[in-house]
Design goal:
The complex is a heterodimer of chains A (114) and B (113). With 114 residues, chain A is mostly beta strands. Chain A is built from no helices and eleven strands. In chain A, a hairpin with a 2-residue loop joins strand 5 and strand 6. Chain A is globular. Chain A starts with a strand and ends with a strand. Chain B is mainly β and 113 residues long. Chain B is built from no helices and nine strands. In chain B, the strands form two sheets. A five-stranded mixed beta sheet of chain B has the order 1-9-8-3-4, with no helix packed on it. Chain B has a four-stranded antiparallel beta sheet with strand order 2-7-6-5, with no helix packed on it. Chain B starts with 8 loop residues before the first strand and ends with a strand. The chains are: A mainly beta (114), B mainly beta (113). At the A-B interface, strand 4, strand 5 and strand 10 of A face strand 3 and strand 4 of B.
């Protein structure tokens, strides 16, 4: 089925380790973004991209890097994991050709940093 | 960013209509009103969006006040599968690129069998 695919679904890291959360979409969406969701805080934007080769910071970018080499993929890299990065991470995408249109979200990656 | 205000929780009986309110008194002329819902352990799911006129789709209806300072998501016949957290969000169309979706804490909808 078409949509946004996130891997892995669950991950446990030790403090200081690095890892990459994968996000892929097959809808040819130009816009992709990463959010984190913490209990009682709603979703917060980490980074976003409006197309291949173009990325920018969101609300909480510190400790995370992104790149967008293809339209389909938008990986999120944790440089040196910290317990404060324990969260559920969601990738979302949308087309830019439908004014005001909605986002498609992935099912999330639950990350625990110990 | 323009903010929205929603009740923390609501209950509704199964097979009855549900009206989920949202206040957005600081909405600007270029803000679209979006609704998403999130089922347990899943990512948010797009429900509906609108700008000025009422909107209908297969999932729900969106009623927008004439002054656009409030809106109501209407589930016409609630089922147990509609139990979720519902988010009302404003998305500006004038700031493409930096179009952060500001998710608040939403309304937790409980459906009573």
């Amino acid at each position: 089925n078409a949509g946004v695919t996130q891997t892995p679904k669950f991950q446990v890291l030790k403090t200081g380790q690095s890892m990459t959360l994968q996000c892929a979409q097959d809808m040819n969406h130009e816009y992709m973004s990463w959010y984190r969701q913490d209990p009682g805080m709603g979703l917060r934007l980490i980074h976003y991209s409006v197309g291949a080769g173009i990325t920018d910071q969101g609300e909480v970018p510190n400790g995370y890097n992104v790149s967008r080499s293809t339209t389909e993929d938008f990986p999120l890299r944790l440089l040196s994991a910290a317990p404060s990065q324990t969260s559920v991470y969601f990738c979302a995408s949308r087309t830019t050709y439908r004014e005001g249109g909605g986002y498609t979200f992935g099912s999330g990656t639950r990350l625990t940093v110990v | 960013d323009a903010k929205t205000t929603q009740p923390n929780s609501m209950e509704s009986n199964e097979e009855e209509p549900v009206h989920l309110p949202c206040n957005h008194s600081t909405i600007s002329g270029t803000d679209y009103i979006h609704w998403y819902r999130q089922l347990p352990s899943q990512g948010p799911e797009y429900v509906i969006h609108g700008l000025t006129s009422n909107v209908n789709n297969r999932m729900a209806s969106l009623a927008i006040a004439e002054d656009r300072k409030s809106s109501t998501l209407i589930l016409h016949r609630a089922t147990l599968r509609d139990a979720a957290v519902y988010y009302c969000i404003l998305r500006s169309s004038s700031n493409f690129g930096n179009e952060k979706l500001t998710f608040g804490t939403g309304t937790r909808l409980t459906i009573i069998p």
